[in-house]
Write a structure and sequence with these properties.
Structural class of chain B: alpha/beta
Oligomer: heterodimer
CATH class of chain B: Alpha Beta
Helix content of chain B: 25-40%
CATH architecture of chain A: 4-Layer Sandwich
Radius of gyration of chain A: 22 Å
Order of helices and strands of chain B: EEEHEEEEEHEEHEHEEEEHHEH
Number of strands of chain A: 15
CATH superfamily of chain B: von Willebrand factor, type A domain
Number of strands of chain B: 16
Largest sheet of chain B: 8 strands, mixed
Largest interface: A-B, 71 and 53 residues
CATH topology of chain B: Rossmann fold
Number of domains of chain B: 1
CATH architecture of chain B: 3-Layer(aba) Sandwich
Shape of chain B: globular
Distance between the termini of chain A: 9 Å
Distance between the termini of chain B: 46 Å
Shape of chain A: globular
Strand content of chain A: 25-35%
């Protein structure tokens, strides 16, 4: 297993907003072991994630190195999350200049690493290094919390709103389950990012929200599980437009055959279903330790509910607290006595290392 | 469902290339960029070498080449001497794990132009070679098919649950070690009757031709072929494509999948382009590793509009 937990690292209460973050990244359950000389070498996890405090909030990112395309893809995923700016990309056009700031340093180091193996060097020159990237910035504003996001490829980013104790999916990237059956778009240091493949936007978070970032295998699991619960409930009318679109697609997929996605969706539908809140609680429980997370990922894969893939999941629970009513001023209070304001609370010291962690 | 098994180290794939090395392979086939003619044997050897290089590339990871495949190359150009044509460190071997194939390449350096972030740069890369061009005398195709049969029968015994082996036969002429078409067809059918739990051995036939005749690639029926008994024979010998292969072929050749219920793995009168395409398709199916897809995602987000897109963010 890879990576250090960031459990509640940023369990902070800053002004009127509190959030807690859990994140783990583990290598795929049925991993490759191969011979190298007389040594047995285990394939490394190629997912990376990062969670960091920024000046006005939080940054969280997942990058899935595509080991079958190019070389040093795990390292490239690490470079992508490490170099993310503290502030959101203002538009699609900002992504390429950002990559321009570090691609060459990465490429030069990769070429140095491959220099002693001519065929490996050739593959690197021809194919580069590839990874997906999904990132969000949570920013405190006067009106609550705003989520700015950017996605390139199929690493899911989902936003749930809590209504009457139940999570309702209000935003999802990718917007279609079919993406999990296609080769993803990948950021490659060799290429200028294709503007049409860059997704992004801004979501104003409701008072109680859960944001999830994931690599594709476990992200697909989360979406299929959630949609199978919705399908069983049959409560389409109250769904958000993205959730309704995904649910319709889910229902079509379970009626088809021939793809791994449809086979997996059918297995989800056959599982016993609790409520969506129970499912999210199960996910949170899975993330109490890296060992628990790895064990559940293995079990989900063995039951045919999740592809055999490296699994990275970051869950951010956000709560915008109701402002406390101002106390009635005592009769003898003078106007010049300062009243604490919401935005002045210091950031609480989180347990462990606030900032970054990765899957490898 | 057949032809769905993931390729892995526990369930490797297998490729066997059958290469015609008859005298006629000395004939010119195409032209090099400098205008000089390129012989059939040279072009085929280069194309197979390039295919092997790509297979190795797909199996290469940061720390080495994973044994996702075993490969065999059978040359047939001398009656009674049909054999695997590995050389140097692999001489005498039959099916060879891809990592060993990689280790035993003859390597040449070459400077190429590479586009990096929109700019063309010079880089030195290596070209790996295994197959040498050869053109001897006869066309003992049946012997080659029988050798492939014997080899893959044993291979399947060792890998009963693997993705089925793929055999790609490249020839410019008719077999001359048979007394009838039926004899060759029978040998081919015995080869393609071999099967793993995931499906039957697949046989692709590529008939190359230097003339201006129109190549016919992945025909859906023998009616599309010229009125040539040999074309019909190769059609009958060639495997029906799987659903996944048909989808990929229709995508690449801009054919309507719903109107293409069947398709054979063959090319007739193949020119250089058609040969390369057939090699690409023939090896592409098995190149789909766990977690990969054959067709890259097209217009961004599938059918549904991207729900998280925000107009304010778009530039």
């Amino acid at each position: 297993m890879e990576g250090d937990p960031i459990e509640d690292v940023l369990a902070t209460a800053t002004g009127a907003v509190s959030w807690s973050v859990r994140g783990f990244s583990v290598v795929k359950p049925k991993n490759d072991v191969f011979g190298q000389g007389d040594q047995a070498v285990t394939r490394p996890n190629e997912d990376r994630f990062r969670v960091a405090e920024t000046g006005d909030g939080l940054l969280a990112a997942v990058s899935d190195g595509a080991g079958s395309s190019g070389l040093y893809c795990g390292q490239w995923a690490q470079a992508l999350v490490d170099h993310l700016p503290d502030t959101p990309f203002p538009n699609r056009g900002a992504v390429d200049p950002w990559m321009g700031g570090f691609w060459k340093q990465f490429a030069d180091e990769a070429k140095r690493l491959a220099a002693d193996a001519p065929t490996r060097h050739t593959k690197l020159i021809r194919e580069g290094s590839c990874a997906t990237l999904s990132v969000c910035w949570l920013r405190r504003t006067d009106a609550g919390v705003t989520l700015h996001w950017m996605g390139y490829g199929d690493s899911p980013l989902c936003v749930f709103e809590w209504r009457d104790g139940q999570p309702a999916l209000i935003s999802s990237h990718p917007g279609s389950l079919a993406k999990f059956d296609q080769a993803p778009f990948l950021l490659n240091w060799k290429d200028v990012p294709h503007k049409d493949h860059i997704r992004g936007g801004v979501v104003h978070l409701p008072p109680q929200a859960t944001v999830m970032l994931a690599s594709d295998g476990i992200g697909q699991f989360v979406l299929l599980r959630y949609l199978s619960v919705l399908s069983a409930l049959g409560a389409d009318a109250i769904l958000s437009a993205p959730a309704r679109a995904l649910l319709e697609e889910f229902r079509k997929i379970v009626q088809t055959s021939g793809s791994k996605l449809s086979s997996m969706a059918q297995k989800h539908l056959l599982q016993p279903h609790g409520s969506a809140a129970t499912f999210i609680a199960e996910l949170r429980a899975a993330m109490t330790s890296e060992a628990t997370f790895a064990s559940l990922v293995r079990a989900w894969n063995e039951h045919g509910l999740m592809p055999n893939d490296d699994a990275t999941l970051v869950i951010i629970d956000v709560e915008t607290l109701e402002p406390e009513p101002e106390p009635e001023p005592p009769a003898d209070t003078h106007d010049d006595i300062p009243v604490p304001s919401d935005g002045d609370s210091p950031v609480a010291d989180g347990a462990g290392e606030p900032g970054t962690s990765d899957g490898g | 469902m057949p032809y769905m098994q993931d390729i892995s180290r526990d369930n490797p794939g297998a490729f066997v290339f059958l290469i015609d090395q008859s005298m006629s392979m000395n004939k010119p086939f195409t032209f090099a960029p400098n205008g000089k003619p390129v012989r059939r044997a040279v072009f085929v050897a280069n194309a197979v070498n390039k295919t092997l290089e790509e297979l190795i590339g797909r199996c290469m990871r940061d720390d080495g080449v994973r044994d996702y495949f075993e490969v065999g190359i059978i040359g047939y150009g001398r009656t009674g001497r049909t054999t695997f044509c590995w050389e140097d460190g692999l001489a005498g071997r039959r099916m060879v794990p891809i990592s060993e194939v990689a280790k035993n390449a003859r390597v040449e350096q070459q400077e190429i132009d590479v586009e990096v972030r929109g700019e063309v740069m010079k880089e030195t890369v290596t070209l790996s070679k295994w197959v040498r061009p050869a053109a001897y005398d006869s066309t003992p195709m049946k012997a080659a098919i029988l050798l492939a049969h014997a080899t893959l029968e044993e291979w399947i015994y060792r890998h009963p649950t693997s993705f089925p082996p793929i055999v790609i036969n490249i020839t410019d002429g008719m077999a001359n070690d048979v007394d009838s078409d039926g004899e060759l067809l029978d040998a081919a059918r015995r080869l393609t009757s071999l099967k793993t739990s995931d499906g039957n051995v697949m046989l692709f036939n590529c008939h190359i031709e230097s003339s201006e005749k129109q190549p016919i690639v992945f025909p859906k029926s023998s009616v599309q072929l010229p009125p040539d008994p040999y074309a019909k024979l190769l059609f009958e010998m060639s495997s029906e494509m799987s659903d996944r292969q048909r989808a990929v072929i229709c995508e690449l050749f801009d054919r309507e999948l719903s109107k293409t219920p069947s398709m054979r793995g063959m090319a007739y009168n193949a020119d250089a382009v058609a040969l390369v395409k057939l090699l690409d398709i023939g090896t592409r199916q098995a190149l789909t590793m766990p977690g990969e897809s054959e067709v890259e995602g097209e217009s961004a987000e599938g059918d549904a509009p991207p729900p998280m897109d925000d107009d304010d963010w778009a530039d």
